[in-house]
Amino acid sequence: MKLINIGFGSMISSGRLVAVVSPDSAPIKRIISEARGNGTLIDATFGRRTRAVLIMDSGHIILSALLTETVAGRVAGKQPTEQEEDLDDAR
Asked: pTM for this one?
């Protein structure tokens, strides 16, 4: 089991991750709204703007403040540079 840091000390199991998507489209906003109503939404943004939506095989939807590309890179095994982490925090 490989754990992926999705920001601010929050971790997810990479084996349970189905998709990492941008929160900007109407269908994704609808998925977030439905998950909030169903009680399957996990907000891991710690009050920051949502930049990535993670869809899990359990049906849970996780919101992250990290960029979609950053999360995808971590899933692929690429270690982010300190500069990339600072950019995520600044946005």
From this structure: 0.85
CA distance 45 to 49: 7
For 61, the 3-state DSSP assignment is strand
What gap in Å lies between CA 83 and CA 62, rounded to an integer? 25
Write the CA distances from 68 to 6, 23, 38, 39, 74, integer angstroms. 10, 9, 24, 23, 10
Q: What percent of the chain has pLDDT over 90?
A: 81
Question: What share of the chain has pLDDT > 70, as a percent?
Answer: 86
Q: Residue type at 80?
A: P
In the block, tokens 């109407």 appear at: 26
